[in-house]
Amino acid sequence: ENAELSTLGVMMAMVVLTALACMLVETAGRRSLMQAAGMLMCLSHVGLSYYMAAQERGWWAPSWLALAALSTYIVGFATGMGPVPWLILSEVFPVEVVGVASAFATAVMWLCAFVVCLAFRGLQSTLGASGVFALFAACCFCCFLFVTALVPETKGKTVDEVLELLRAQARSVKLAPPLPAASATPTGAPARLRV
Hints:
Layout: H1 2-24, H2 30-57, H3 63-81, H4 84-89, H5 98-150, H6 159-172
């Protein structure tokens, strides 16, 4: 019964926090929510890694530390990394390919979730519980760095403005060749820039 109540409490918190994220996404911005979420999730995994190591070695490790780390993870995930990437999917792809690109990105996200679930037991037996959470902390920190370095803020911008931000960013780090300047086509209509 305790486990069922705990699960119910976590699910209720996820719903409330996701609703909060829906309100914050237009004021705080998508990028800043994802940065905060990445850092909160990283810190929660560091806390869990310490807790697991402390349990094995007999160090100071009160049970509230694990609870605080799990709660921090839930807050970070439910307010940022859970809902925001789904929103950004429709904002970073050209209208012509948004359906196919979003479907592919969704498949990749679910495949990664499947791989994490599949590999967890093996990682735990190889790295130990502390090592697995340290690895997850490193992954979340890499996610924070990725969002900071490459994800544009899309709040209040049209798809074309976001795509231009991505083009400028790609040119600045030499990820893509320079795009041709817009010129008139033989019919006199302006040429479309390719993404």
